[in-house]
């Protein structure tokens, strides 16, 4: 009997509450594993283990495939309009709720390095919120985003459309380090 | 990474418990945002929005910078020997504890797609576990692993060192569905 599931990622389905919670936890676990392995790959390269660096990148990619499968089962992959709305919603939560609350705690506890990491993220999420907002308006009129370069600061994640700034206005990193998409 | 670059990154810090909880949650959030945006990019490509796809990939990269910063502050990025031990322990937990428990519940709740997503992940984690184990043994002696290709199945994340099989032993995807690193 042919396997109807062959060669396609797992599909959305109605799930039991416990299974839905578990798949959400597995999505969180796979996503974090992927990010750790990417950071570990950079360390391996810097220490002169290029093949271990490559192994970490390959396995990070495998974890991304698992994250995508779990996200699909959870029904988290929509149309681009829906995806932009979800992305905007996530950024807005981080800006309005999550990072201000975390910063207040870190400030109270005098954890300065944590505050830097929180502040870098919060400022970049504001860039993202604005960009997703204007992009969503375009897509609702069936229009793609203009064909313009997107620059990302590799230190703090500051994100700019169009022209690369001479230096990062959040963290001071100079233009030559910016990654262009 | 040069010194000027390193200097701008948030530094590892002795964290108070509540601030550490915050950063852990923020790391989980940024990691999941990065994965979601990569999936949303593919969806945008399919719908004929190549520039929105590029935007999602750029912002995904920005979120990976935040994830790395948070992880660094939490002292989660160490030497390659230590990183391989951490990676091995994470895979072992998923194989021995997490996925078997999730798999039982999904089976009891008759959620076939969730079961499939779990099975694909646990099979690949077994590949990763021994790869990390071998790499760790070498790195302890100061040696890199062999310069062999590492390939990943785009459907299930099956990971193989060396020759790619004609079809994926886990999900039966054909050879051309592998990405090689």
Describe it for me?
The complex is a heterodimer of chains A (181) and B (181). Chain A is mainly alpha-helical. Chain A is built from four helices and three strands. A three-stranded antiparallel β-sheet of chain A has the order 2-1-3. In chain A, a hairpin with a 6-residue loop joins strand 1 (150-152) and strand 2. Chain B is mainly alpha-helical and 181 residues long. Helices cover 65% and strands 6% of the residues of chain B. Chain B is built from five helices and three strands, in the order H-H-H-H-H-E-E-E. Chains A and B meet through helix 1, helix 2, helix 3, helix 4 and strand 1 of A and helix 2, helix 3, helix 4, helix 5 and strand 1 of B.
Question: Keyphrases for this structure?
Answer:
heterodimer; A: 181 residues; mainly alpha; 3 strands; B: 181 residues; three-stranded antiparallel β-sheet; 65% helix
Shape of chain B: globular
Percent helix range of chain B: 55-70%
Number of strands of chain B: 3
What is the subunit arrangement here?
Answer: heterodimer
- Judged by helices, strands and strand pairing, the structural class of chain B is mainly alpha
**How much is the radius of gyration of chain B in Å?**
19 Å
Number of β-strand runs of chain A: 3
Number of H/I helices of chain A: 4
Determine the most extensive contact between two protein chains.
A-B, 116 and 114 residues
Order of strands across the main sheet of chain B: 2-1-3
Strand content of chain A: under 5%
Q: Could you give a short account of the major beta sheet of chain A? A: 3 strands, antiparallel
N-to-C order of helices and strands of chain B:
HHHHHEEE
Order of helices and strands of chain A: HHHHEEE
* Sheet with the most strands: spatial strand order of chain A: 2-1-3
- The backbone outline of chain A, from C-alpha atoms, is globular
In short:
The complex is a heterodimer of chains A (181) and B (181). Chain A is mainly alpha-helical and 181 residues long.
